[in-house]
């Protein structure tokens, strides 16, 4: 009987020790969670500060170089029409490119397969950037490709 009591006592001590280890592990885990949450918060604050700084710089760039925003918008449009980054870069530098492939119109939700057309971005008298296909503004060029007149597009709700 005394041997069983000794073993029982040893097992209780082992259980108590294991319970203590579990409590320490829980405490350590909570400390790690708290530390991680602080680091995430600090990183988030740093990112927010960096974003704020970048926005202030971008606002200055827009004020100092008004055409910069136009170039960004035209870049977005060229990519959406189907030109790749290299072709878009050439277009934004005023170069004429020959293009074969698909052109996409978001306005009409349609694609056109073209073969060896010329594309160029020009500035009009108001210094706006206009993408031309075969020396025709792309919106007009798409209407011609889809067999639409301006009066038809207005009737269908595609107003220019």
Molecular structure report:
This protein starts with a helix and ends in a 5-residue tail after the last helix. The mean pLDDT is 91. The protein is of the alpha+beta class and 160 residues long. A four-stranded antiparallel β-sheet has the order 1-2-3-4. Helix 2 (67-81) packs antiparallel against helix 3 (85-92). The chain has helices at 2-64, 67-81, 85-92, 138-145, 150-155, and strands at residues 97-105, 110-123, 129-133, 136-137. The radius of gyration is 33 Å and the shape is elongated.
Features:
single chain; 160 residues; alpha+beta; four-stranded antiparallel beta sheet; 5 helices; 4 strands; 19% strand; elongated
Q: Give me the strand/helix succession.
A: HHHEEEEHH
Roughly what percent helix?
Answer: 55-70%
How would the global form be characterised? elongated
Query: What's the rounded overall pLDDT mean?
Result: 91
Structural class: alpha+beta
- Whole-Å distance between the termini? 99 Å
Strand tally: 4
Instruction: Using the CA coordinates, give the radius of gyration.
Output: 33 Å
Indicate the low-confidence ranges by residue numbers: none
Give me the side-by-side strand order of the main sheet. Answer: 1-2-3-4
**Helix count, DSSP H or I runs of 4 or more residues:** 5
Approximate strand percentage: 15-25%
- Report the sheet with the most strands, covering strand number, pairing sense and barrel closure: 4 strands, antiparallel
């Amino acid at each position: 009987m005394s041997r069983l009591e000794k073993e029982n006592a040893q097992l209780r001590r082992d259980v108590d020790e294991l319970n203590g280890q579990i409590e320490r592990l829980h405490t350590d885990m909570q400390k790690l969670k708290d530390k991680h949450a602080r680091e995430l918060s600090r990183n988030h604050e740093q990112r927010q500060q960096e974003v704020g700084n970048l926005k202030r710089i971008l606002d200055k760039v827009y004020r100092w170089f008004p055409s910069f925003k136009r170039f960004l918008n035209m870049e977005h449009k060229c990519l959406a029409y189907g030109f790749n980054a290299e072709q878009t870069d050439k277009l934004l530098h005023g170069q004429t490119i020959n293009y074969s492939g698909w052109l996409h119109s978001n306005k009409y939700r349609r694609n056109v397969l073209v073969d060896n057309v010329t594309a160029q971005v020009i500035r009009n008298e108001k210094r706006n950037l206009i993408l031309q296909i075969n020396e025709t503004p792309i919106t007009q060029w798409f209407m011609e490709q889809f067999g639409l007149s301006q009066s038809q597009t207005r009737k269908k709700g595609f107003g220019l």
